[in-house]
Write the structure tokens for this entry.
Amino acid sequence: MKKRQKKRLRAKDFTGYIFLLPWLIGFFGLTAFPMAASLFYSLCNYDMLTPPQFAGLQNYAKLFADPKFRTSLEVTIKYVFVGVPLQLVFALLIALMLKKNRRGIKVYRAVYYLPSLFGGSVAVSILWKQLFNKEGLFNQILAVFGIEGINWIATPETALNTLIVLAVWQFGSSMVIFLASLKQIPEDYYEASRIDGAGKIRQFFSITLPLLTPMVFFNVVMAFINAFQSFTPAYIISNGTGAPVNSTLFYSLYLYIKAFGNFQMGYAAAMAWILLLLIAAFTGLLFLSAKKWVFYE
């Protein structure tokens, strides 16, 4: 009997592994092996045309001596720490506006979410480029008020700001998560606070925001990770160069230039691992800080 039971258990295990096989193939073929290969290439001089030559930590030493690397890091950090908070604040405000069930509210929710469906796409980036150039719609609107516009995407002081505005405009995913969370807050809390004389502002800071902190934390983590990896808008708007004057030279764009423009694949792999460690460090800090400001029921 025991032998039969063991055979049945082995058959069940085998069946389980068969069902897991697609995931295992994907994990090892598309994640684990490429990561291991990139770590190896980051320690080599490799141009994709000749065999890799082991160079130790040479690529990492070159990175920290490269002025453009520091510039790309500064541009990306500015984009992340300005764009992400603005995007989340805007998403929360819109979610609060769309919370109540009114006539046609579902249409409004769909319209506000629509930009996120095309987030990071080439088409939206081209549209944004046309919108903020010298003859673009934004300058045409300013001209109505007698204001002479500039070429916003070709001016170093404003080029990055146009990309930040684009990131803020694509707030739909965060808005949907906030909206779902707002609907889960019991109405009894608000009724009790109104009896105690609390106004809308006091209710927001004493009830709504504390109960939303788990979703705020989730949105912050996801938005930070996505922003650090942003590539398409900067590539399209700057024609793949980070112009003007490297003001839109995102980290991922500089990585792309090194890998597929200069064929310095080892250097680019080292950049990728620095980015991984940077994202891991920021995410770790967020998780450590969560103990002080994230509240669970």
